[in-house]
Amino acid sequence: MSAAVSSEQLGRYGFVVPKRVGNAVQRNLIKRRMRSACLELMALKPGLDVVLRAEKPALDIAYQQLVDEISDGLSVLGGKLK
C-alpha cells in the first residue's frame, strides 16, 4: 500500500492485482472486495491518493478482516504523511 496527498478533496483509490494471484475471475473478485472496502473507509482519510496491491492471501481472508487490514494500513500511511 502506498499513498500521497491528493490535490482533490476526495480520496482516490487504485488497485493492483498481479496475475500470479490467480485467474481473471479471482483477480476481479479481489478488486471488487477491495473497492467495496475502500468505499466504506473513504470518510476516514479524505484527500489521499492510495494504491493497494493484493497478494494471494487476499483470496482466503474474510471481508471484515480485509476492511480491518485496509483501515490499519490507511491509519499508518495517514500518520506518515502528516
Description of the structure:
The protein has 2 helices and 3 strands, in the order ββαβα. α1 packs across α2 (63-81). It starts with a strand and ends with a helix. It has a 3-stranded mixed beta sheet, covered by helices on one side. The protein has one domain: Ribosomal Protein S5, domain 2 (2-Layer Sandwich), CATH 3.30.230.10. The chain is an alpha+beta fold.
List the helices and strands and how they pair.
Blueprint: E1 2-5, E2 12-16, H1 24-41, E3 48-53, H2 63-81
Parallel strand pairs: 2-3
Antiparallel strand pairs: 1-3
Helix pairs in contact: 1-2
Question: Can you describe this structure in just a few lines?
Answer:
Helix content is 45%, strand content 18%. It is built from two helices and three strands. It has helices spanning 24-41, 63-81; strands at 2-5, 12-16, 48-53.
CATH hierarchy class name: Alpha Beta
CATH architecture: 2-Layer Sandwich
Structural class: alpha+beta
Which ranges are low-confidence, i.e. pLDDT below 50, for 5 or more consecutive residues? none
